[in-house]
Amino acid sequence: MKYKSSEEFHDHLLGAIEKKRGYHLKRFEEHKSEQDKGAVDALAWAYTLIKFGKGNIKK
User: What pLDDT is recorded for position 54?
Assistant: First the structure.
């Protein structure tokens, strides 16, 4: 997939992370799996790092 700007890339990436985090959060609430809890935590960190480092990624 080709992105027209880094802004478009960031928006797509953050949307994908939010979607995946929601999936694992729902699974964790249903099954209380440690694996899903770890995935939720890791995806939350990834989202935060990308969100606050938004202007630091170069082409």
Answer: 59
Question: 15-27 pLDDT, tens per residue?
Answer: 888 888 888 888 8
CA–CA distance, 54 with 25 (Å, rounded to integer): 24
Residue 59: inside a domain: no
- Domain assignment present for 57: no
**Number of domain units in the chain:** 1
Instruction: Give the structural domain span for 26.
Output: 6-52
The whole-model pTM stands at 0.64
**Residue 32 falls in which region: left (phi positive, over 0), alpha (psi -120 to 50) or beta:** left
